[in-house]
Amino acid sequence: MNEAQHQSLLGAIAISSGLAGLGNITPQQRSDAFASLEQFKTYPGRMAACVDMIGSNSLQISGVVNTPLDVTVSGKLFALSVIQEFLKVGYNNLSESDRGQLRSSIVAAARQLAIPMGVPSIKMNDSTRILAVKIAALLADLALREFPQRWQTFVSDLFSPFSNGGIWCEAGADAGGNTIGVKICLECLKLITEDCTDSDYNARISTTRRNDILLGLNEMSTQILPSLFELLSKQFGDVGTAKTTLQAMHQYLASNGRSVAQLTPDEQAHYKEKIDRRDAAGGIVADVLGTLEKFCQSMPLDWMFKVENGIDFVAALLHLLREDVANIQVLSVSCLQQLSMRKLDQNQWFRLVASIPPALFEASNAAAQRANERGFLPNSIEMLVEQLEFHRSLSKMGSTLVSAHLAHITSDKDISSGRGAKFDAVLNYLRFLSEMMSHPSGVICGAQINTWVGLLRDPAIVRTTVLRPHLGNVLTGYMNHIVKVRWEDVWDQDHPYSALIEASWDDDEEYNEWLGNLRSKSSQLFRSIGNTEPEIAVTIIHSKICALLNAHCNGEPRDQLNPENNELTMKSTACLQFEGATQPLDNILHGLPSWSVDGGNYDEKRNRIRSIIRPMLSELASVIVSWNPSDVWLKFRRTTLLEALKHYWKHEPSTLPTGVDSLLLYLSAKDNPPKERLSQDVIGLRKKSGVSLVAVSKIVPNLLVPWLSPLSERAKTLLASGGLSPINEMHLYEFLSCVATAVENPLDRSSFVADVLANSIRLLESPRIQNAIQSTETLLSFMGVTQAAINPSCVTDHEFVKKVTGDFSAMFSSLNQLLSVGKRCHEAAKKRPNGGLPVQNLSPVIDDSVALNFPDEGPISINELAINDPFVPLWPKLLPTILQVLDITLRLWHPEFQATLLRDNVQRYVLAISDDEAYLATKQECSVGGVFGKGGTAGSIISGTDRRDLNLTPRWSGWFNELRNNCFQLLGLLCSQRVLYAPEISPLFPRLVSVVTNSMHLRSMEHRHFTQYLKQYIEIMMLSCPTSLYQSHLTAILGPVFEHLQLRFQYSWGPILGTGALSAESTKPLFSANSAEGARLANSDVETWLVAYYARGGLFVGDLDSVTAEAMADKARIEITRTFSDMIQSVLALKGGWALVLANKAKEEAAKRNDPLKSASGPKSRLSENGPTNADGTKRTLVQLHLDARKLLRIDKLCHFLLLENEQIAGYLVLTLIQCLEYPDAYTCRRCTRIVHRVLEAVAWVDRYTELLGYRLFSVAVKAIITEPKWMVGIEWDMINIIRDIYGRMVLGQYFVPGGQGPGLQMTRDPSNPMHFEQTKVVHKPLQGGGILLSPSDFPRRLLMEIGMSQGGIVEIEKNLVENRAAKEQKDTFRDVLRVAADRTKGQNGILERAGEEESLLHQNTRKPEVTALPEKLVTLSQEKRREEKDAVADASDGPWHGNLF
After folding, report:
1. Taking residues 1116-1142, what's their average pLDDT?
2. 3-class secondary structure for 1074-1088?
3. What are the tens digits of pLDDT across the range 629-666?
4. Which of 727, 730, 660, 749 has its CA nearest to residue 699?
5. Cα–Cα distances in Å, from 540 out to 651, 754, 1347?
6. Distance between CA atoms of 120 and 1267, rounded to whole angstroms?
7. How far apart (Å, rounded) are the C-alpha atoms in residues 526 and 590?
8. What DSSP element (H or E) covers 1029?
9. Between 1276-1287 and 1258-1266, two packed helices, what is the crossing angle to 10 degrees?
């Protein structure tokens, strides 16, 4: 490059960097400059030009009047960036001499920048700092490619003093201009360490190269670490010296009555010099700590912990905790944090535990001294704000050091015995953590909560005395911080810690999120403390509640009042305080061990603790029950406190009747003064009272049985008053039903439940309701829809709206009460001693080594079922009405009704989604405030109108949703209570089948309806049906359902996949503007209507915006597919309760294999003294063992029934599963791969499945891999495993353990027929591996030939698959085959986006790291020494066995 070209390049650099002094630059000149620079990056001689530029002392061009302009910094930065890009693409092609020359040039540029100045400046020039960072990055890139094999002088080139040929500063150099070389070295070292240790996120460096560099750094650490420690010591000393001088200056000024502002010019210069020197030295210390943090994170622990020749980095880090200049103390904590997350040995860990508290004591004294010098108190708000980041990081580090090394506490005998130096050290350390709980900022204690929960959950630690002294501080701290801060006080600066709170959280949204997380985690903490130290917990909560009642029982200080009635609001101080006390009270009482409150006789220590606790709890219950506030919000808080007492009432129910009476009284609470319409506050109080009643009744139903008669009378009085809302009525019914389930006599239970529900049943049987549900037309009239067509204004008429709303509420409330009470009774039945089984005496031994036949696995009469569940005798009376309601409701979506309703501008909204459903389709945030809040969707379906308005139109959609879902849930309850399979229901079964499998019902349901149908009824029916009734009760229902699902999915996903007759545009839902088009389609032939109907999921969204509408359509399509896959997983024992049964069985078998003393036969499930545990860690009971035995039987039988006993069910089920594998939803696809493995295990050996599995399934799996759709990234291995499973079972004669896991288990050829394989011994046991196809199929081979494989290639891969049967080897073989096919399809992208090579699994092995391994083998001096020592030992052992005996 000649001089003219050189000047042109520098000019382009100056223009692109916006250098001043160039005059007016036109856009064209700037564009030309950028183009020239881009062109230079491809210039063959660019490297030589760049090397010249970075080696030049100065780069200049001529300005507007021929004045020289300096472009040194800009020019060198550009040259360095070009060199850095060249390293990525062209460096490996350079010769050894060229590489050495380039390396020398860059090191020379670094030395040029680091030349010591005659009169060094204290402040480092900004442009110099930028250049230093850029050169450091380039040196790091070079080191990654050359060190240590090719660049053996790396350490001496960089870390030697400048006078010895390096770029490190001279010994004793002051911070500033003479330490720029230090900046380069530290940054370079930090980058190298990051790149070589962060392997999870940095794949550009090969593993071999990474290991070589780390080995080289470790070998040279004896040269690097002393320099770092010496620099750290020198610069920290300079910081201290400068601070001492500044302190003396301040004292001098103070003694003379002067301030810094009154300094003379000379004094100001001297003062500023000391500040600059302090900051410059502090900056170097901060840079060293930044590099040390990377060492602490990843390098050998000896680098930090080894004490040698006066070098002790841990001691230095602890000493630096006292220094606040340049954020040194926070950076020191960061280094300690990285160490605390490492796997420290016991000595290293105890060293930190013992050293940190004294170091923090010194740091605290230093902070107090700084505060005193500035005229502040040590704990003043100013100092707390200033040190917040230090305290936050310190709390996090301190807690991590404990939680990451709990094993060191549990394994130490001194700590377990409560004596010795180590016990004292841990005790002192935990005291430091617990004392931080008193910090006014909640983020400090929030950082520790996981640690305290972990300590309290470890039984070995709980047994020691190490926690007891600290739990009082911990409990008090968290109780104080879960009280919500009123953010308005922070904004107005009325809160005493406003500045600290604003420094802790950015805004109220972040604070509320933090508070929610803290409260969620605190529940476990409070329970654990209550269980571990009940005396401490009860004493503190008793004191807290009594103090609150003394201070706020009447709402004092009565702030934040409602101006309308002068009552407290939820933001009043008293309400916030009581809210914060509820959670600790509830969880502490819940966690109390039974011995601390019951009447048993225990050891002296427990009896003493109980004698202290019980009087306090008695007083606590009395003061809460006797408290009688007048403000609505205080009543609400009292309700929550009463609910918390339910755990105490289990053991001491003397105050229970009064508490329940108070809750019943609040059900009819009114405003003061009374209003015509209840306020939201009173409605909230009533709802909470109802919820609390139900919660109490669930815990202590047996204790309420003696008061059942007066409670029933009280309930009837409340119901007769007519003032209760439907939800309160439901709560009351639930409350009574929970109490009723505790009645011992089954007949009395059933009679009481029937009496409780008498009003609801009577209403449903009344002529008014029976006439309303006679047909769909009468139902429409009953709900005011028919009238709206004649008189549209009636939907807003006050009297009409009130009448229709009241009529619907009465009918729906009755159905809902039936559902609610039925569920409560069923839950209570499952908790009975027999677990709800219609067997009165459970055998203590279950022998699952033989086939079991359970007498209850068949039809059981209602009378027998009623012994456990008092609700079941009502079903013969209820079922006809429920079926009728469901039938006429589903009929409303038939095309003939849709054609009519969609034409009418008012009636069409019967078919619309509700505002609530639209809201669920949006991205919800906690601050939005729900559907009616800011950003909610209220009024979006019918523009400007929502269900709170006096208008029937927006209410219809919700009403029909409630009716439909209620009926589905009632049918699910019918199944789970096993009444569906009772002989008494058999006359009604044909009617049930005709309703739930009605062809037009199934076809007309929207996706959202069908999702609930599957989830709430079909799945429950399959799981609850006894094995002997599959043919009689499941066949008639599942056949039509699965056949319909296959069609529905095909039409729904067709437009998305581009396989249907409709385009992707057809997936948009129906709007008000085009509802007439929907009506026209509904009037056409059914098949045409169905195609368009399923494409949009059946959705009519009214006036909803297009974005939310499309999200709703996507949600509906995805949800129904996911629901189907989840349902099949559940019934095939791949998730849920049945999967837990298999996990338990696998756990038992594994334990049996590992313990040879266990009997190989005989009873497998005898209860031990402590009882067996589930695979998820929960305790197993005798009832669960009996239930599991029945579930195991159903798991086997149901799988066989679904796949082998009915062609309609099996064919459409498997076909639908195959289709689901190609739908662009990773959730569904991943789950369907698991299901398909179970299908292969069950039926791969059946000839009639050969074409379906060997060709259709295999082709879908292969297509999904070779087309590389972007949505499948992350689940390719699952799909390849499907391919492996099919090919192994259907071609190679191999089978696998369940799930397609493990190596292929090869079957031998049949001696009598070499063309066939021998069948597996577990062919009829899919849970043990299943079978194989005896005669190998050519379908998979044919498909491989279709994607381009030759016959010889197929023979070769089959040979490899037989010889290498390991799972990884076989899957890699298929991946290599499919990669070739995928490369042939490049450029043939379909409607879905294709994954790039960086994401694709197929091309994973073809991606090469940017920095590859060097051919030279690394041999270090340490390795040579170890080899010599080993050889010496070997030589000594080569002599005669008798040594020198002779």
Report:
1. 95
2. HHHHHHHHHHCCHHH
3. 999 999 999 999 999 999 999 999 999 999 999 999 99
4. 660
5. 20, 46, 74
6. 64
7. 9
8. none
9. 140
Strands (E), 36-168: 60-62, 68-70
Per DSSP, the chain holds a count of helices (H) and strands (E) of 67, 8
Handedness of CA 1096, 1098, 1104, 1107 (dihedral sign): negative
DSSP H or E segment with residue 1302? strand 1301-1306
Radius of gyration for the alpha carbons in the chain, expressed in angstroms and rounded: 39
Residue 1313, H or E segment: strand 1313-1317
Q: Cβ neighbours of residue 480 under 8 Å, at least 6 residues apart? A: none
Question: What value, to the nearest 5°, has the Cα angle with vertex 106 and ends 102 and 107?
Answer: 115
In single-letter form, the type of residue at position 831 comes to K
- Residue 140 CA to residue 202 CA, distance in Å, equals 15
Q: How confident is the model at residue 1161 (pLDDT cuts 50, 70, 90)?
A: very low
pTM for the structure as a whole:
0.83
pLDDT one-digit tens code per residue, 907-932: 999 999 998 888 888 766 544 567 78
Cβ neighbours of 152 (radius 10 Å): 13
Q: Which one, of 1145, 1174, 1164, lies nearest residue 846 by Cα?
A: 1164
Does 690 score more than 80 pLDDT?
yes
AA letter at 761 = I
H or E element at residue 669: none
Q: How far apart are CA 318 and CA 320, in angstroms?
A: 5
By the 8 A CB rule, do 274 and 249 touch? yes
Tell me the torsion sign for CA atoms 977, 980, 983, 985: positive
Alpha-carbon gap, residue 289 to 282, rounded angstroms: 10
1066: how many CB neighbours lie within 10 A of its CB?
15
The residues pairing with 161 across neighbouring beta strands, listed in sequence order, are 168
Look-up of token digits 């589903």: 890
- Pick from 891, 679, 888, 910: nearest CA to 804: 910
Instruction: Give the separation between CA 65 and CA 214, rounded to whole angstroms.
Output: 55
Find out whether the peptide bond into 1311 is cis, omega within 30 degrees of 0: no
Q: What sign results for the dihedral spanned by CA atoms 193, 198, 201, 206?
A: positive
H or E element in which residue 156 lies: helix 154-159
Residue 717 buriedness (CB in 10 A; 0-12 / 13-18 / 19+): exposed
Q: Which residues of 196-235 are buried (b: 16+ CB within 10 A; e: fewer)?
A: bbeeeeeeebbeebbebbbebbbbbbeebbebbbebbebb
Find out whether 864 and 836 touch, Cβ atoms under 8 Å: no
344: its two tokens: 């420290």
**Residue 275: C-alpha distances to residues 86, 125, 179, 243, 1423 (Å):** 43, 17, 17, 8, 49
Which two tokens mark 203? 């794949």
Closest CA to 636 of 673, 688, 585: 688
Length, in residues, of the chain: 1446
Token code pair at residue 340: 């605390």
Mean pLDDT score across all residues of the chain: 89
Distance CA 227, CA 215 (A): 19
The C-alpha atoms of residue 688 and residue 102 are separated, in whole angstroms, by 76
What backbone phi and psi angles, to 5 degrees, belong to 264?
-75, 165
Report the C-alpha gap between 721 and 579 in whole angstroms: 31
Hey, what are 1292's tokens?
């190679």
Q: Is 24 exposed, middle or buried (0-12, 13-18, 19+ CB in 10 A)?
A: exposed
Quickly tell me which residue has 């019967």 as its tokens: 910
**Residue 1081 structure tokens:** 């389609």
Q: How far apart are alpha carbons 789 and 376 in whole angstroms?
A: 77
What are the Cα distances from residue 518, in Å, to 443, 622, 1068, 1221? 9, 30, 42, 41
420 in Cβ contact with 414 (< 8 Å): yes
Q: Which helix (H) or strand (E) holds 130?
A: helix 126-146
Residues 6+ apart with CB under 8 A from 238: 174, 175, 277, 278, 281
Cis peptide before 148 (omega within 30 of 0): yes
